TrEMBL record:
The protein, known as: Cytochrome c oxidase accessory protein CcoG
Keywords carried by this UniProt record: 4Fe-4S, Electron transport, Iron, Iron-sulfur, Membrane, Metal-binding, Transmembrane, Transmembrane helix, Transport
Native organism taxonomy: Bacteria, Pseudomonadati, Pseudomonadota, Gammaproteobacteria, Oceanospirillales
Underlying gene: ccoG
Transmembrane spans: 45-62, 89-110, 163-180, 200-217, 336-355
Gene Ontology CC annotations of this record: plasma membrane
Gene source species: Halomonas elongata (strain ATCC 33173 / DSM 2581 / NBRC 15536 / NCIMB 2198 / 1H9)
Length: 467
């Protein structure tokens, strides 16, 4: 009987089949075709503007200091004349929340236009493709060179291409480090090996990642490394504006050379240009895909073909799923309005916090080793340690005062703090013992700049015995 059970268990086992191929698809190296059109002009113009700002801003100075400078050793962030410190981390939190809601709003409204028009990965990839096209020729020539053995001409062109890529990558790394170290000082120190070790490390890392991501990985970053492509599906709806193929108009596809006399042929002539110009290598005619970055290269390519055939544009266009189905598109919808309200609320709160920002900070800590001291004159004294931070860009002189108890006096009332620095001082607060009516009193510390309209108040406690 036991043998029957064993045989039965053996018969119930799942058969194992050996596959003759790998489960991992090899990467298909893309040779992207250059395309011209209205959307590519807008994309290139935006890319040029953003990249010009990236490379130019480290060279801009205000009052002898970089306009944008992340001063990590000094623990300060200088932004167009304003200086922020770690104590103001809440403002950075507001900025991150605003950026998140802005991304959510744009995604629900118009899909992945951020990826196609403003993402640094896309911008640098298009720049590298532009260099490749200028040095190795258009797509068909690059494909021909890839199929034949290396010769002197191909070697020289590829070598010049990679040298140009490396130069762009090094310029990118240098500019990136220039946001953390004044770039003029950096350029002087680098060749003399006088820059900090971290400057060389980060310059090399940013240059290496720029060269690899924009020159070699390219679409793999968008397909497999970027998390935005993965969670966008939960943010789309039927009214999200995306690049779409009008299958009702384009199908059935009939090549141009075969469509003569075919009455039922669609407008798509199956030329394949929409695939050749796509930086991620997808076929938009297969429907919405997570790899589509909404760059509209396929729209410009298809519009060019439609113009040559004398047919109306828009076979591939920015549209919504409802519009393709012949249904009205709703712009004002709950999800989109919710993101918009949240974004506007965050912007308003950030503006209020920025407007109420005081370039001065004061920490008050009462001496915990001794509750209070009674002087020979009969006064009760508390000792406090004050830390005054000048968050402004200029030196200031301050006046210190305290209130909350009648006759409360301080042994120090004036101090000066240089710009962007802090000063710690010990202050004795004294009051006549007859003014004390309970063990603890609430008092207020007042700090006021003598040379500017800057002031703040901090609460503390004054301890003393009952009379």
């Amino acid at each position: 009987m036991s043998q029957d059970i064993l045989y039965r268990e053996a018969d119930d086992r799942i058969p194992v089949t050996e596959l003759g191929h790998s489960l991992y698809a090899p990467r298909r190296h893309l040779q992207v075709r250059e395309v011209r059109g209205r959307f590519q002009r807008w994309r290139r113009g935006l890319n040029v503007a953003l990249m010009s700002a990236f490379f130019a801003l480290p060279w801009v100075t205000l009052d002898g200091r970089p306009a944008i400078w992340f001063d990590l050793p000094g623990r300060a962030f200088h932004l167009f004349g304003m200086t922020f410190y770690p104590q103001e981390f809440m403002l950075l939190s507001w900025l991150l929340i605003i950026a998140a809601f802005a991304l959510f709003f744009v995604t629900v409204l118009a899909g992945r236009v951020w990826c196609g028009y403003a993402c640094p990965q896309s911008a640098w990839t298009w720049w590298f493709i532009w260099v490749e096209h200028r040095l190795e020729g258009p797509r068909h020539r690059r494909l021909k060179r890839a199929r034949r053995a290396m010769d002197v001409d191909t070697t020289c062109r590829k070598g010049l291409k990679h040298a140009t890529w490396l130069a762009i990558a090094l310029a990118t790394g240098l500019t990136f480090v220039g946001y953390f170290t004044p770039i003029r000082d950096l350029l002087t120190a680098l060749p003399r090996l006088e820059a900090s070790g971290w400057a060389y490390v980060w310059l090399g890392l940013v240059a290496a990642f720029t060269y690899l991501n924009a020159g070699w990985l390219r679409e793999q970053v968008c397909l497999h490394m970027c998390p935005y492509a993965r969670f966008q599906a939960v943010m789309f709806d039927r009214d999200t504006l995306t690049v779409s193929y009008d299958a009702g108009r384009g199908e059935p596809r009939v090549p141009r050379r075969r469509e003569t006399g075919t009455a039922e042929a669609g407008d798509c002539v199956d030329c394949g240009l929409c695939v050749q110009v796509c930086p991620t290598g997808i076929d938009i005619r297969d429907g919405l895909q997570h790899a589509c970055i909404d760059c509209a290269a396929c729209i410009d390519a298809c519009d060019g073909v439609m113009d040559r055939l004398g047919r109306p544009r828009g076979l591939i266009r920015y549209t919504t799923e409802n519009a393709l189905a012949g249904q009205p598109t709703r712009i004002a919808r709950p999800r989109l309005l919710g993101y918009l309200v949240a974004l506007l609320a965050m912007l308003a709160l950030f503006a209020v916090n920025l407007a109420e920002r005081t370039p001065l900070d004061l920490d008050v800590e009462r001496d915990r080793q001794r509750l209070f001291r009674v002087t020979p004159q009969g006064d009760i004294t508390n000792v406090y340690t004050l830390t005054v931070r000048n968050l402004d860009n200029v030196d200031h002189r301050y006046r210190l005062a305290a209130s909350g108890l009648a006759g409360l006096t301080l042994d120090r009332q004036r101090l000066e703090v240089p710009a962007g620095q802090s000063r710690q001082l010990v202050v004795e607060a004294s009051v006549d013992r007859h003014a004390i009516h309970r063990p603890s009193h609430d008092i207020q510390w007042h700090l006021e700049a003598l040379d500017a309209d800057i002031s703040l108040v901090r609460d503390s406690r004054f301890l003393g015995g009952t009379p």
